Amino acid sequence: MLIVVSDTGFYKGEAACVNAMFEEGLEIFHLRKPATGMEELQSFLEAIHPRHLSKIALHSHHRLVGLFGLRRLHYTEAKQMNTAPDLWPVLQELGYRLSTSIHKIEEAKKIDPCFEYCFLGPVFNSISKPGYISVMPGDSVLPGGRTKLIAIGGINAANAKAALDMGFDGVATLGFIWQNGMPIKNFQQIREACS
Asked: Residue 152 above 90 pLDDT?
């Protein structure tokens, strides 16, 4: 599984880049813009081709799901821990696909099974957040019998395969995609590295 996470800010042509990545085989796009208002997110979603909306996971302003028929909701680690656990089966029963994040391997077995997958990271030193250092010691072993774990943090074309070889069920990339103004080319590189 290959996931792209949005940059936190907007830039001209971003939605067109996301549409192009979907056409190139992007499986899931996480729309994560924590300082953005609902109207700006709505405008962004209006620019996404309708056939791709089901592949977008929304991190904030979850009320927008009704306007666009979105089915994927992401909850940060803090929000997930501060939400009554009886909400997860209700959302799942309503047809929503849930994801969350953790920062320690030992938390993996504690994730509610209603979550389809969980980001764990940073696996490598972060690209988009300098000083955000890997939480994965060299001898780390991922636990079995748990929610799917997606490697995040420092993921690029050179190390994506290494993350998959560690036992992760997929990778999520952010900084590598958006860092140099060539998101589509960067996506093509990491897609090739993962195949």
From this structure: yes
Mean pLDDT of 87-93: 96
Structure confidence by residue, pLDDT tens digits, 160-193: 999 999 889 999 999 999 988 899 999 999 999 9
- Structural domain boundaries, residue 134: 2-194
Q: 3-class secondary structure for the chain?
A: CEEEECCCCCCCCHHHHHHHHHHCCCCEEEECCCCCCHHHHHHHHHCCCHHHHHHEEECCCHHHHHHHCCCEEEECHHHHHCCCCCHHHHHHHCCCEEEEEECCHHHHHHCCCCEEEEEECCCCCCCCCCCCCCCCCCCCCCCCCCCEEEEECCCCCCCHHHHHHCCCCEEEECHHHHCCCCHHHHHHHHHHHHC
**Given this model, what pLDDT does residue 12 score?**
87
**How many domains would you assign to the chain?**
1
Maximum CA extent, the chain: 46
pTM as predicted: 0.93
Residues 38-70 have pLDDT tens digits of: 999 999 999 999 999 999 999 999 999 999 999
